[in-house]
Amino acid sequence: MLEFRREGIYCVPGQFYIDPWLPVDYAIITHAHSDHARIGMKKYLCHKFTEPILRLRLGADIKVQTVNYNEELSINAVKVSLHPAGHIIGSAQVRIEYKGKVTVVSGDFKIQDDGLSTPFEPIKCHDFITESTFGLPIYNWLEVNQINQNLVEWVLNNKEKGINSIIIGYALGKAQRIMNAVKDISVPYVHYAISKINNSFLEIGIQLPAYQTIDFQNKPKDMQGEVIIVPPSLFGSTMLKGIPRSFTAICSGWMQVRGARRWRSADAGFAISDHADWTGLLKAVKESNAERVYVTHGFKSELSRYLNEIGIESHEITTQFGVEEEIDEVINEEKS
Ligand SMILES: [Zn+2]
Ligand SMILES: [Zn+2]
Predict the structure, then answer these.
(1) pLDDT for residue 331
(2) 2 DSSP β-pair partners
(3) Which class is domain 2-138+274-335?
(4) pTM for this one?
């Protein structure tokens, strides 16, 4: 039913692509991170919560059709529905059914309930296409409450000494989670790139914790014991150096293993991730009941090999997902 083409993942009978990376006529979009939602498609289909972010990032004039979770569409005799992926607000797994065969494309997902996104729902299928961003046994997350508590304690510790807490997290997804984690102890300042996304969510009625947009020109000098949330592209920037007496923390699943050279100079790291950890990936694969699993971006050979070893037929596929979300997302966003 699916072909892995130069343009992206293609549903042959349905004549649509899922998260294509080259321009095509019809694209179903799992979520609005820039490695999954690209410019140049004639028509987009996505969850209704994804639409405002898609327009913000790709242009107000793009052609978008929206659906709710579990709403069934028929596209060229293929049954199509979107189901919660728990990755970020509006993120979806795509279920496609044709002649009794069901395939699910997970997009990016996590099993943990982050308190903002609609929680992940396992969908039974014959073929399951999974991401594998953190597909190694060393990646296992703490409970959401516990990791949030760790972050809160770090902030409170800084606050006591009048030190500002700069927290680095992706503008779409992570930033809102950080706002949620600190909501009882702070009305955080956020970078403009984050408040643009927050506004898009607020406009369609999604509730977010209180925040304020930082004015880098005037405000930083007299800040004391505040929380400032900024995207990764600002790490080490002169803009942040204008904030007096501050410690910097990075929120990313990669913080579980403090290897990445770029982040080593941070004062703290919290393994808060919007992707499934090793246990979560295995749980999703098993609960899908799939006969065949296709593994995409991340540690795909490691996860695929393990699945084959435990008797689940698994194949690696090459896609162009995974790169921008980790590094370039915000840089692209600021250019547009
Ligand atoms: Zn993503
Ligand atoms: Zn991704």
Answers:
(1) 35
(2) 11
(3) alpha beta
(4) 0.93
